[in-house]
Amino acid sequence: MKFSNFLFPAAMKPEQDHQIINETLREGQLCDELGMDMLWLAEHHFDGICAYVDPVSFAAALAACTKRIQIGFAVAQMSLHHPIRMAEQMSLIDNISKGRLVVGLGRGTAYNIYDYQGYGIDPAEAYERLVEAEDIMIKAWTTENFEHKGKYWNLRLPLLRPRPYTKPHPAIVRACSGEEAMLGMAREGRPFLMNIQSNEVIKYRMDLYRKTMRESGHNEATVAKCVENTWVWRNIFVAETDAEAQRLALPAFEAQQEFRQAMRKKVYEEQGLLLKQDAGPAARNQVQHSMICGSPATVAEEIAKIDDIDVGGLLMVFRMGPMPYEVAENSIRLFMKKVAPEFNKTRKALAAA
Prior knowledge:
Helices cover 51% and strands 16% of the residues. It has helices at residues 17-34, 55-65, 83-96, 113-119, 126-142, 179-188, 199-215, 220-228, 242-271, 287-290, 296-309, 325-352; strands at 2-7, 38-41, 70-73, 76-77, 101-106, 146-149, 154-157, 171-176, 192-194, 231-238, 291-294, 313-317.
């Protein structure tokens, strides 16, 4: 199992923006120095739940100030991006990072209608825009004299520059919040990012994902490669003892949940608009499914349960809500010093075999 830090920092007040953005750069550099596999970036607008807002600009900053860690999006909201501009930006960051970029794409948020309102986009168009944009980006990276006539864009360009550093183009992964979207990736033989789910749902979906790939004619090498590049999401907090971890993490997690819902509630009260209502208690809102919290031994034991399911990597949020940077930093250091090595032993044994 690979380990990553999902940099998803909240600036609870506008006057905190500068501080949180710069602390998040430090957090990314720290993970690079400690040997973590990957950084993931989010995209949300107008509410402070993701302080740096734009994963494209922030990825470029991280590419310039880190050396070896991979950088990916979880995810860029493609309904809000022009595909040719995005293809150029991705190619540039791919060059700056010397091939460390993973282009994680999604249709756009399923919850925050104000993201779409701010960009003048109809949420009902989001999925179609994603599919058309991804096709445009791939062809722009890989062909010359490219011409496209579609539902949302009519384009013509001689050659996209700069050319991607990674050939034929940077790695692409899709976010799949639902089962049907995941099955679409399985049929195409592509990896995916899974949002927060219980261990039982993760196992069910991963078993179904592998089964569907095989039934769609993909060989075992393709199945293994796709699983290796599939990631699942958890909030993580490590302290010296279980009691200390709970004391520091639980209030931050609860404040984070309330903060993420506040703007949706405000917009609904003012405009009567709600993009999506959870049908029941969502796993992301339940501590027992959303967060792994405790001493290094406790955290390692819980992560081992996910590792046994066989997924490629764990997409981890260390800094939750109003948590001070120094508290999150200590958690990251403990994780890389006392938790990650337990799984690195398994990695080395498998590599030797």
